[in-house]
Fold these 2 entries.
Entry 1:
Amino acid sequence: MGLDTKIGEFDRFIDHLPEEIAESLWFIPVREDKAPDIPEEESLRDEEFRLGLEEARERLEDGKNIGIILRDHFSVLDVIDPEEAEEYLKDLPSTLEVSTRSGKVHRYYLPGDEIEGKDIPNIAELRTGWRCVVAPGSHACDEGGNGWGTYSIESSQDVAELSPNDLPPELTVVEEGGKEEDRIVNERGWRIEKIMEDDEKLDSLLTRNVPPGKGYVDIEEARKDTIRKLLYWEFGPKMVQEAMESYRKYEDFDFDSLFINVLQDFQSNGEDTISDHLDDPDAYRPGSGVGKKVKRKTRRELEEWVSNQNRRVREDGAVPATFASEIALPSGESIEEGSTLFLPPDLVAELQEKEKAGRYIFKCPRCHELHFQEKPYKPSVCQNPNCESNGERTDGKFLKPVHPSDHEERAEALMDNYHFKTVAASLSGTSAAGLTHLYEKGVYDEEEAMGFIRGKVQNMNSKLKLSDQNDVINYISVATQVSEEKFGVSEGKVVLEDRTLDLENDELRPHKPSDLATSKIPIEYDPDAWCPEFLDYLERMVPSEKDRERLQELLGTALVGEKLHKKGAMVVGPTDAGKSTLIKIIRGVFGGRDNVSTQAPSTLADTRWGKAKLRNKLLNSTDEVSAGRLEELATLKRVMDGDPVEAEEKREKTFEFSPTCEHLYAANQTPSASRKDDAFWNRWIVIETPNPVP
Ligand SMILES: [Zn+2]
């Protein structure tokens, strides 16, 4: 599938460079048609897309192309018409040459002094700075998919230095079709490219498809704003015009009259310029990040929240933010306008400051202007003076909320951010909410789901009443119902603290909400772990190797959270044999009360709420079984078989479920002879602890 790239050509090229240059080159991924292989709207200047020397080699070896950003490492003379160019270039120092896919020539130079990019139209072009060339070894075609060829070394010699004096006078800047953005500088000499790194709004106005929409009624408004922005950054009229014509096709408009118009407004309103905002304009360096809108770092942070499957953990203090416009994420995904995400307050504050997101946002249906409000009340009129509504409140539909504004939207927003599941059988026909579980760090937990939802709804809008919260709870309950038997991780998997262990292939993988796990063992898996002290202790307590194996098997089946057999384990021995200690250790290993219930057999037999305690548990284990009352264990048959039983959460309605936990009890010794004839004991794996522990 890969392209016919030639790593050898690349290596020869690198061999001809001074080592420190080779190590510090800035490579980028390039597609087969020579276009940069990065998401649209992204900038090549972003370090994110930069490849180092080794990464670039690897990419070429994989049959993919790379490019080199020239920066101050290289000047490359692109000889478009070798015959015509001959007379201009004959005095230039000879240097390493690369033939391009179409058989033309790239001459590589190390710029001695600062050299500007210049060209002789259709004959030769000198590229520098942020310009880019396809690297030797790449195999590319033209935009139409034709004209395939490999970039290979034509003249194998070291890269020479080039000084501005070497250049022929003809290799100068041309006015026509000049796209040399590096030439566009403001009155302080700051390059527009650098300024755009700091001012995302300007960047977006010049490089993206803004109007109409995105806050602009029409292209005229966008043009005016672009001019205002450039005046703010202290560009002179000629440079304003160049910037607008080079970066965007603001076609067919009368620049002069619009410019004068905006300039007059700008001056009569006494609008600020960048100098007004800098203590010391001379100390400021464009590109340093000052004033940049929604930074890449922020978008990357956002991406973590959006793409990470386990982002839906309870994040204390996370606050809702509704997005006022689409935000493109580094991965190429985007957050849609109107999405509500629960995010860390710092992140929300930053988005709010840039008016990218907020808690209460209303949109004018006429001019689409967004109104960010502090409180959940909608403004009575559109505040855009140019809106055709003319500031009049005309009908009830005016200004629509972008943020979630009814229980359905609030519930949907919560379900977009968090995972919920509700036991279908726990929902009654009418209003009541069911047993709703909240997914957190690998497992669904029922205890805090309700309070969690209430808290989040309150957080969205503190004016809401209890009944509004209930509406959201009910909506989520109904929307997330799943039958009881679907709960629990599927066969052969054990959920651990931060990974899930697949017993079939002994592999660890991240937690998945779709596993519907309800319990996990709070340990990190170490297949090489060994515990000599415990094994030693166990050997003394349970001398029979067979008994120890059976105990291990029972506990092993308990781990996987499904019902694999119908026997319970009974540890029997004299009172001082350390049975309670053994049970305590095992409970601890299983993660304590989250995974182990401690229901006495009599409670299980006699009460519905006792049975309810077995839900989502791996093990039920207690030493509170008196020898005299062993017969009560017989009533546990259904529970131990994993058959459906009726249960009841205290003060809630009853429901049916099938317990999957294993049972481990301790009882004082009964003579093994009498056990032999007793059918009752067939249900039990008997673990003998015959010796008193000193
Ligand atoms: Zn409006």
Entry 2:
Amino acid sequence: MSARHVVVVGGAGAIGSVVAAVLAEQGMRVTVADFADASAVVAALPGSGHAAVPLDVTDREGVLALLGPDASVGHYDALVYAAGTNYTGPVATTDWDAWDRVLTVNLKGAAYFGQAASLNLEANPRECSIVYFSSTAGLVGEGGASVYASSKFGLIGFMQCHASEIARFGARANAVCPGNIDSPMLRTLAAQVGERNGVSTEETLAQFAGATAFNRLIDIREVAQVVAFLASAASTGMSGQSVVIDGPPN
Ligand SMILES: NC(=O)c1ccc[n+]([C@@H]2O[C@H](COP(=O)([O-])OP(=O)(O)OC[C@H]3O[C@@H](n4cnc5c(N)ncnc54)[C@H](O)[C@@H]3O)[C@@H](O)[C@H]2O)c1
């Protein structure tokens, strides 16, 4: 039997690259699609048959060519949308260029990706699992996060609709909602939030870590293991769900 083939969009990033590694460790074949060079990520994966392909998720035709009915990646069994970008700032001073950038990558790109998958599944109905990266910021808003939260709340709504539509093909869609992940994206956010509040980056990170009773940040691998479960055929009873990867309330 051939290995399960998973395409990880945004797989050159901090979280996407670890998702790719965990999938490969579990015997899956991984194609990493990103607008950043993913060749080093792919070279480090255990097993064989992995590939890196260039993709800009804001290019609808490019997404369709990669994943649509005549997918250039060939047959796939699961898709992960881990592309994303962040912006923090109060509503009163929103940078509208940043709004466009964040909403285009985090939400519109995901919709291009979902549409390409729908057309592929319509042409070739099968068991297939789609995992979208939302965030705990896609479930609960907080001051300073209006732009990012709008994209991540929107992504959960999109995922739920998509899951309903592709069920008839035997396919599924779910979202993961990680909390504060020990990652460069979170460090950049901590620096920006800290500057706004007159607090150091390290102190802000400590506040993020203390937001749950775990009193620590979540490790990227802890996120990747949940994504691997959702991408696998072990989770065929789950669709339309938002899975939180975070500690309990303090
Ligand atoms: N880091 C966290 O604490 C955290 C928490 C919750 C959710 N998330 C979400 O997890 C996902 C991954 O985050 P990360 O920390 O790995 O961020 P990251 O910046 O390390 O990775 C994001 C990846 O997306 C790619 N990307 C951006 N724009 C693209 C485009 N137009 N076309 C193709 N690829 C593009 C980047 O090249 C990068 O490889 C994001 O959706 C993020 O919002 C992150």
